[in-house]
Design brief:
Length: 48
C-alpha cells in the first residue's frame, strides 16, 4: 500500500499496527476538521 511504502521510504518499520493507525488517522481527518495529539514529552507529537 501507499502508506507501507512511505513508511519504508522513511526507513521506518512498516508494522501492521502502525500502518493501521496511520490509515485510521487519515480516515478521521476526512470527517473531522481537527484532531488533538496528546502524549508524554519526547514521544514525537511535533513530528505528526
Amino acid at each position: 500500500s501507499f502508506v507501507r511504502q512511505a513508511v519504508l521510504d522513511l526507513r521506518l518499520q512498516a508494522e501492521d499496527n502502525f500502518v493501521l493507525k496511520v490509515v485510521q488517522l487519515e480516515e478521521l481527518l476526512t470527517v473531522r476538521h481537527s484532531v488533538f495529539v496528546v502524549g508524554n514529552a519526547g514521544t514525537g507529537k511535533s513530528q505528526v
